[in-house]
Each structure stands twice: as structure tokens, then as C-alpha cells.
Amino acid sequence: MPETRTRRAFAPGRVNLIGEHTDYTGGLVLPVALELGITVEVTTGGGRIVGVSAGHQSAELPALAGGSDLAAVEPAWIRFLVAAARRIGVVDGFTATVSSDLPVGGTGLSSSSALTCAAVLAMGAEGTVIELARLARLAEIDATGVEIGIMDQAVSMGGVADHALLIDCRTLDITPVPVPSSIEVLVVHTGQSRDLAGSAYRRRLDECRRIEQAIGPLRDAGQDAIAELDDPVLARRARHVITENERVRRMIDALAAADGPAAGKVLLEGHRSLRTDYEVSTPIVDDLVATVAGTTGVYGARLTGGGFGGSLVALCEPGTEVALDTWWTRARPGVGAHLLA
Ligand code: GLA
Question: Which of 18, 19, 329, 340 has its CA 20 to 30 A from that of 246?
């Protein structure tokens, strides 16, 4: 008789301070786990897959439905749980209840990684932060077909209160970096939802592979390597990644010095690079960055996450108010995924 067991786990969403589109070339990233996230309760066993999530279509299907074709499993949100179950070896079905205080669906705050990380823990997986993050990443790739990097799962699993995480996506070393109390993090939803599975992310991955075939690992490249690329589009993409890795180091220095204006400058330069070199911004996002960055008390703002909408991250003086129609929140860095009683 297969084991039946109930566990409940929480996993946070994230906002990335800097280091965008660098994880899949082994670069540096500096995300923070949010206090907002997703809670998943799972009872394993029962021979069927049953899923309930507030505001979403319920799921009911036979265990292991879909064979190897997860793309055919509906509703789409249950794919993340089915993929996690398969990766972990939960073969006799499960019943899952999902709740969220994170805005979900294309918000650029990693709700799908939070869902997958919470599911991985609630289904009984054990291991180090990086082992669990790798498992969640593979499940997410199974569910979406997009070869994302490891940033979102690593910060969701490993978040540390009041700290950003410097994640070296080549060595997978994680170093908590204190966020000083004199600098506040704001998260602003653009109102434009983006679809990561969209072709643009895949195209950027492919462009980075072509760049690396020509000049070697982007992580090791200096700005002088950009001139070796004949294709002007690839040259711009390379310039983004190379300068973005440098901006991660500058942000760490600015946080260590509690230097809000220097941190804000890094954000604004990062946004310019995403807009003109990596071309993952939109006019709505650019306008919102200008509005938020122009608000008294705000040091700087930029697009965060995969791009084409989603959310902005801003750094500001504590207590700063932004007058916006869209959803926004102050974000103290929170803790990583954990089992709940
Ligand atoms: C998405 C992916 C991450 C990362 C970001 C861009 O969130 O899941 O792995 O590539 O986009 O920085």
C-alpha cells in the first residue's frame, strides 16, 4: 500500500534587485525573497491527481496523466505540480490545495517558481537549498518547456530575512548580502502581464549560445570582447550581460555602503541596458520606470524578471509613497521555502 501523507509548505516569490538575464550564462544575480508567496498542501496517494487553487479552474485527472506530454495537461497550473511529483517519484497521485498572497500569473515575481518550490517541499523532497532548487527548476522546465536559469528557484528555496542573495550561477555559491534598513525595496506591478513561455526568452537564450560559441563564456568576457562580434544584435546582447554582471558587483558595494543614490544609479543603468541592448522592455514599462524613478525619495527603478511587462523594482528612502494606479508594495526581504505545521 503506497504511503499517504499530508504536508504543507510555503515558498516565496522574488524580486530581483539586479543581475537580469545573466543566470543562464552562469552569471551573477542579486534577488530577494518576498514575504509574499504560495502555500501548497499536498496529500500523496489516492491514485488520482486532484488540485484546487482559489480563483483557478480545479484539476482532476488520473495519476501520471499525460504520459510524457505535460503540455497536454489542463488546467495549465497543475502542470507544475504534476512535474514536481514526477521528478520526486510521487507516482500514486496526490491531492493539492494551493493558496497565494502573491499576485499570480505573469507578474514577474516568480509565482510559478514559488508554486513549484512549495510543491517540491510539500511532496516530501529533502536536500540542500541548491539540490531542492535544481529539482524545482527541472520540474518547471518540464512544465513549461522553457530552459530557464536557476535564480528564481534558488532564491525561493534559500531566501534570508533582511538579505538579498548573491547567487553565482556558475558555482552555485549563495552569499547573503544585508539590505540596510535605510534603503527600502518597492515592487510595482506594471499591469502588463508577460508570458515567459513566449518565444522572446527562448530567442535570448539562443542568442547567448551563439555569442558564447564566438567569444567563449560570457561570464569570463570583458567589454573588449564585444568588438569581436560582427552581428550588431549579438554585440548588444553581449554588452548587456557583461555590464550586468559588473552592475551586480556595484550594487553589492552600494548596499554595503548604505549608499541609496549609488544603488539607484545601478538600477537605472540596468534598465537602460534591458531596454536598448537586451530589448526586453515595453513602452508601458519604460513610462512607469520614469514615473517611479522621478518620485521624491526614489533612488532608482528598473524592470525586474524576464521582461515584456511584469513588475518593476525600485529602491527608495524608507516610507516613500508612490502615487500609482497599479498594485505596488514595500518589500522587506523574507525567508525561503519551508514546511508549515
Ligand atoms: C525568468 C527566469 C530566470 C531569469 C529571469 C531573467 O525569471 O525564470 O531564470 O532568467 O527570467 O533574469
Answer: 329
Q: Is the CB of 149 under 6 A from ligand 1?
A: yes
pLDDT number for residue 201 = 93
Task: Please determine, for residue 250, whether its predicted confidence score (pLDDT) is greater than 90.
Answer: yes
β-bridge mates for residue 177, sequence order = 164
CA 306 to ligand 1: nearest atom: 11
Domain harbouring 119, CATH code: 3.30.230.10
Would you say the CB of residue 152 lies under 6 angstroms from ligand 1?
yes
Q: What is the DSSP letter of 218?
A: G
24 lines ligand 1 (CB under 6 A): yes
Is 23 part of the annotated catalytic residue set? Answer: no
Q: Note down the domain range covering 53.
A: 6-178
Distance from chain centroid for Cα 12:
10
Atom of ligand 1 nearest to the CA of 19: 12
Position 32 in a domain: yes
Cα separation, 201 vs 21, in Å, equals 9
Among 23, 92, 142, 152, the active-site one is 152
Q: Is the pLDDT of residue 3 over 70?
A: no
DSSP secondary structure letter of residue 195: -
Average of per-residue pLDDT across 227-250: 98
Residue 53 φ then ψ, to 5°: -145, 125
Ligand 1 atom with the smallest distance to the CA of 146 is 8
Answer yes or no: do 151 and 287 share one domain: no
What is the spatial distance between Cα 30 and Cα 276, in angstroms, rounded to a whole number? 21
The mean pLDDT value for 281-296 works out to 96
- Mutation pick for ligand 1 pocket among 151, 155, 156 (CB with most ligand atoms within 8 Å): 151
C-alpha cell at 298: 526614489
